[in-house]
Design goal:
The protein is an alpha+beta fold and 170 residues long. Helix content is 15%, strand content 38%. A five-stranded antiparallel sheet has the order 1-2-5-6-13, with no helix packed on it. Strands 3-4-7-12 form a four-stranded antiparallel sheet, with no helix packed on it. The longest helix has 19 residues.
């Protein structure tokens, strides 16, 4: 093996090790500005300005199934998966002409929604076995039972809010 090949392999392994050790930086959202300047130049009207962020959901680890004494299937059979995201700050501003009926009272209206965290959990399922554990009084064979089925409800937790404002000229 040539020396350049060995050096390349060593550099590649070093980069892979550094990438594995480094903690990944997770962004809360991707900022987005809605471009409406084209509408303003074509129509000659003042258009609203919109700035927001696209949320990036982060999937957490599902709850591990647990075995209980006397049950043949783990609980929950289909675990719920937590998902969290940051709803980014959103700002919409729009010109408001002639607020008080005169051109000198032109103002600006705004709708602002501060950033907030939203957490959810997917639905899960619990299933009971149609058979019991082996029974010594039944020659070691399991008995039949009524199977049980349960659904774990989905959850959503968050507190989004919005602020509405009007700014008058000074």
């Amino acid at each position: 093996m040539k020396m350049t090949a060995r050096g390349s392999i060593a550099a590649l392994l070093t980069c892979m090790a550094a990438a594995g050790v480094a903690t990944p930086a997770v962004a809360d959202g991707v900022p987005v500005g809605v471009p409406l300047e084209g509408v303003e130049t074509t129509t000659g009207l003042d258009v609203p300005r919109i700035a927001t962020a696209v949320p990036l959901p982060v999937v957490g680890a599902p709850e591990a199934p647990r075995m209980h004494k006397g049950d043949m299937l783990p609980t929950p059979l289909l675990p719920a998966v937590p998902i969290a995201t940051e709803l980014g700050e959103t700002l919409v501003t729009s010109p408001l002409p002639n607020l008080a009926g005169r051109p000198e009272t032109d103002g600006e209206g705004s709708l602002e929604s501060p950033a907030t965290t939203v957490r959810t959990r997917t639905p899960g399922a619990v299933l009971g076995s149609p058979l019991t554990m082996p029974d010594a009084s039944n020659s070691g064979l399991p008995n039949l039972t009524t199977p049980k089925l349960g659904i774990l409800t989905p959850e959503i937790t968050g507190a989004p809010e919005a602020l509405l404002g009007v700014a008058l000229p000074r």
